Amino acid sequence: MGLPVEGETIQIHSYKHNGRIHRVWQETMILKGTKNIVIGANEKTLVTESDGRTWLTREPSICYFHAEHWFNIICMLREDGVYYYCNMSSPFVYDNHALKYIDYDLDVKVFPDMSYTLLDEDEYEQHRKEMAYPEVIDKILKRNLAKLISWIQQRRGPFAQDFIEVWTNRYELYRDIQAEQE
């Protein structure tokens, strides 16, 4: 399986429970890669949807993935503050220069003031039935949703005050090094 190497660029592949590809981010620069945590950054990267549509991300983002938690967190750096988009998902695997996970529909949007909104509950229920999510998956996701909300409330992990500054600085350093090499 291997690990992503700091400074390298990889793809991110999101799948659905039935094994079908959901979304692919073309280029994410690795800022930290261990067996448990991958932190990456991207800016204006091409995203391809399962139906072939493409779009570019609008702002720089710091992405946080964990091998033991059933969620990932995208920190979007906007002019009016940091917005977080949290996907309830399987833990990541790293395979063939791509970070891969299963997207389980439920999302949490967190605003710069740390207020948050749960999104896509109806989509989760629909897909849970259509794709026959096992009861154990439902329980794991609900337990991890509670853990994610406690992280938001306690300002842990990517929600900690210095997280964005530390990883944005690292991203700028790698980006500068990459520009010098081109």
From TrEMBL:
Alphabetical list of Pfam families matching this protein: DUF402
EC number(s) recorded for this UniProt protein: 3.6.1.15, 3.6.1.6
Source domain of life: Bacteria
Cofactor: Mg(2+)
Enzyme class: hydrolase
Record keyword Hydrolase present: yes
Reaction it catalyzes: a ribonucleoside 5'-triphosphate + H2O = a ribonucleoside 5'-diphosphate + phosphate + H(+); a ribonucleoside 5'-diphosphate + H2O = a ribonucleoside 5'-phosphate + phosphate + H(+)
Record: residues binding Mg(2+) 2: D105, D107, D120, E123
Boundaries of every DUF402 domain copy: 18-156
Family listed: Belongs to the Ntdp family.
Protein name per the record: Nucleoside triphosphate/diphosphate phosphatase
Source organism: Lysinibacillus odysseyi 34hs-1 = NBRC 100172
